[in-house]
Design goal:
- The complex is a heterodimer.
- Chain A is built from five helices and no strands.
- By secondary structure, chain A is mainly alpha-helical.
- Chain A has a single domain, classed as AhpD-like, CATH 1.20.1290.10.
- In chain A, helix 3 (about 40-55) runs antiparallel to helix 4 (about 60-70) and helix 3 (about 40-55) crosses helix 5.
- Chain A is extended and about 60 Å long.
- Chain B starts with 6 loop residues before the first helix and ends in a 12-residue tail after the last helix.
- By secondary structure, chain B is of the alpha/beta class.
- Chain B contains 14 helices and ten strands.
- Chain B has one domain: Aldolase class I (TIM Barrel, Alpha-Beta Barrel), CATH 3.20.20.70.
- Chain B has helices spanning about 5-20, 40-50, 60-65, 105-120, 140-145, 170-175, 190-195, 200-215, 240-255, 270-280, 285-290, 320-325, 340-345, 355-360, and strands spanning about 55, 55-60, 75-80, 125-130, 150-155, 180-185, 225-230, 260-265, 305-310, 315.
- Classes of the chains: A mainly alpha, B alpha/beta.
- At the A-B interface, helix 4 and helix 5 of A face helix 9 of B.
Amino acid sequence: MAGYYNTQHLADFGKIADVQPEIGKKFFEYYGAVFADGALTAREKSVIALAVAHAVQCPYCIDAYTQDCQQKGADIEQMTEALHVAVAIRGGASLVHGMQMREKAGKLGM
Amino acid sequence: MTEIIPPRRFKEVADAVAADAQSPRAAQSLQRRHAPLASTSAQLAMLGALPLEREGRQVTFEDLTGGVLRPAKLEIFQVNLGKLCNMACRHCHVDAGPDRTDAMMSDETVEHVIAAIKLSTATTVDLTGGAPELHPRFRDIVEAAVKAGKHVMDRCNLTILLVPRNAGLIDWLAERNVEIVASLPHYRRPNTDSQRGAGVFEKSMKAMTMLNAAGYGTGDPAHRLTLVSNPSGAFLGASQATAEREWRQSLLREHGVTFDRLFVLNNMPISRFLEWLETSGNLTAYMERLVAAFNPGAVDGLMCRNTLSVGWDGALYDCDFNQMLDLKLAPASNAHIENFDEARWHARTIVTARHCFGCTAGAGSSCGGQTA
């Protein structure tokens, strides 16, 4: 094993279904349905996926959805705004826990 | 009998464009830089040498289509008036630019073109370049085609409409019901300016405002404004229908402009885009992407089947892309406008090479947009 991350793993992702193919097939069918045009466009879903990819810090997803967003016509300003949405939620999620800290501190302190 | 147009005539046009200090330039022509890929044989050799394999052997276009392409009825008579352009975009497959006064249609060839348009059964005359509006005989060809009852399309880069010598051109075209087929890489500034030069997006919006004021892009079928988008990099075009909705909403909301329809094209691995692919390290991956995205459903609508493409020097081709690679119409005896025989054209074999993967990838790509 060369290391923990390998770019070839993205291209080979489908092979995960070589083992337990019934379950794998269900996942990829579901995945395809999620990203199809619906109440949201495929382009909007791709931009959401790009933001989530940064929130979950998945290099495979960042690689795939950077290209997918560009191909679907999103430009670098739109993609950067999506990234900041993920950053804001992650930052906000930490910050809002500060209220727990404040409550506890307020109770214990004089 | 051959009248040689003094190059000075085209130089005057080029100088007038250059005098417009606002003219944006994103690149310089390969020819001006004496770049190796200014040679069409160098381009074909580069594409031919790429390791594009399927089942262990080099893949050809015919391997994917399952044989030669069959000609269809002639519909589009496309004329490239020359390579002179007020802009120099990074992705240009024509290697057009303000310096290209060397490749402009002569008066003699213009007369042959007009005679052939009158004889042709094609219903549409499609004028392209360079910026076709920079050719001194542009209006003569439009007038002749309109009088011959053809639908005329002007492949326009938008910014050319703001050049002082073209004042009044929009109204002149509107009076003749000429369709404006305007290239605009993207509906927002960053991707448009990165391909075409700083300030191009703003100028394009100004030109669209002028076109709308003249009745273009407002739903009137006699004054159709078609926009043509291409990707800003080494990836395929977006879905045309989805992109059109997005463009329509954003252009109206942000800039108050409207259009009638959107074509989404793929970038062809030719000329300056080929050079960019190579220098940016994207060439093999891009070509693999085109091969992997081959769509059999895109083949029937390919423009090479229903289009005659005339070069600035009167040479004939199956399409504008073959023209830029100097892959002439077969047979050679029917490959010049001077002695063109439409009956023989119908029996031709369409010339293909690896660049053709660009037109069959994804949803397909032709001068008329997606084909699948």
